[in-house]
Design brief:
With about 260 residues, the protein is an alpha/beta fold. About 50% of the residues lie in helices and about 10% in strands. It folds into two domains: about 35 residues; about 210 residues, Rossmann fold. It has a seven-stranded mixed β-sheet with strand order 1-7-6-5-2-3-4, sandwiched between helices. About 40% of the residues are buried.
C-alpha cells in the first residue's frame, strides 16, 4: 500500500514498517489478522480509508463485461453448474492483495481446462442440493460477478452470500455486491468485520447466527481459508486458486492450482 499510494513521507513510511516488524516479532497473529492491523495503522497515519477503491472499480467493470459475455454460454453448457463453479474459481485471481497485475481472460481459459488439484466438486454440487441453508462467503471485488453467475445457476432457495463489513484490501463490500446485483439472486449480508478473511471472533452476531444455522458453507479464496481452516468444520467447502507458496504448501498442491476442498 505504501508504494501503491506513493507515500513519500519518511516518518509515515517508517512508522508503518516499524509496526510490521513489531507484528512479525510478536508472532501471535495470523496473516489476515496481521493485515487487518496494518491496514488500521496505514489508514490512521494517511487518512486513506479505502486504499483499493480504484482497483475495485476497475475489477467490477471488467468482470461485469465478462459476466454478460459468459451468461449465454452458461445457458448452452452441458454442465452449467460445473462451468460456473470453475468460473467462480477463475475469478479468484482478482486479488490485489496477492498480485498487482493479472490476466483474467487468460486465467479463465486456463481454469476451464485445468484439473483440480483437490477435487471435491462433485460432492459439493450433490450436497448443495441436499442442504436447506447454504452460506456463501465471498472474497474479492470483481470476483463477485462470477460468484453471482454460479449462485444464480445453482438456484438454491435459501442461499445467503456474505461480504466484508468494511473496506479491506480489494475484498467485496455490500456496495460492490449491490452494484453487481447479487441481491437479485440471493440474500446478502455483511460479516461486520474489516479483516481480509472470516475471523469468527471478529464477526457480527447476525453473521455468526447465519454461520451456525448453515447446513453447508462455501468459502472463497485464500484469506477465508486462512481464517476458517483451523475451525475444522465438515460443512465447509473451500474454493480457491493457490496464489502463493505458503497456501500451496499448506494444501500440498502447486502454486496456481485450482482447488475445491472439503476438509
Amino acid at each position: 500500500m505504501l508504494s501503491k499510494h506513493q507515500i513519500t513521507d519518511e516518518a509515515i513510511e517508517q512508522a508503518v514498517r516499524d509496526q510490521l516488524e513489531a507484528y512479525i516479532e510478536a508472532n501471535s497473529l495470523s496473516s489476515p489478522e496481521m493485515q487487518q492491523q496494518l491496514s488500521w495503522h496505514f489508514s490512521r497515519l494517511t487518512g486513506i480509508a479505502d486504499p483499493f477503491v480504484e482497483e475495485k472499480r476497475i475489477s467490477n467493470s471488467q468482470a461485469d463485461n465478462l459476466y454478460h459475455e459468459w451468461k449465454p454460454k452458461v445457458k448452452r453448457a452441458d454442465n452449467p453448474e460445473l462451468l460456473t463453479l470453475r468460473l467462480a474459481i477463475a475469478g479468484n485471481i482478482m486479488d490485489y492483495g496477492a498480485h498487482q497485475h493479472f490476466d483474467l481472460e487468460q486465467t479463465i481459459t486456463k481454469v476451464l481446462d485445468a484439473e483440480f488439484a483437490i477435487d471435491h466438486s462433485a460432492k459439493l454440487l450433490r450436497e448443495i442440493k441436499k442442504a436447506e441453508k447454504v452460506l456463501y462467503l465471498c472474497d474479492n471485488a470483481g470476483e463477485i460477478y462470477f460468484d453471482k453467475l454460479f449462485i444464480e445457476t445453482l438456484q438454491h432457495p435459501d442461499l445467503t452470500a456474505v461480504v466484508r463489513g468494511f473496506p479491506s484490501l480489494n475484498d467485496v463490500t455490500i456496495q460492490d455486491a449491490f452494484q453487481a446485483g447479487l441481491h437479485e439472486v440471493c440474500k446478502v449480508i455483511d460479516n461486520g468485520s474489516d479483516a481480509p478473511s472470516t475471523i469468527l471472533n471478529d464477526c457480527s452476531h447476525e453473521f455468526l447466527e447465519a454461520f451456525q444455522q448453515a447446513d453447508l458453507i462455501i468459502s472463497k479464496g485464500q484469506g477465508n481459508l486462512e481464517g476458517l481452516l483451523p475451525v475444522a468444520d465438515e460443512r465447509m467447502y473451500f474454493l480457491l486458486m493457490a496464489k502463493c507458496d505458503v497456501i500451496a504448501d499448506l494444501l500440498e498442491v502447486n502454486r496456481g492450482d485450482i482447488i475445491v476442498f472439503n476438509p
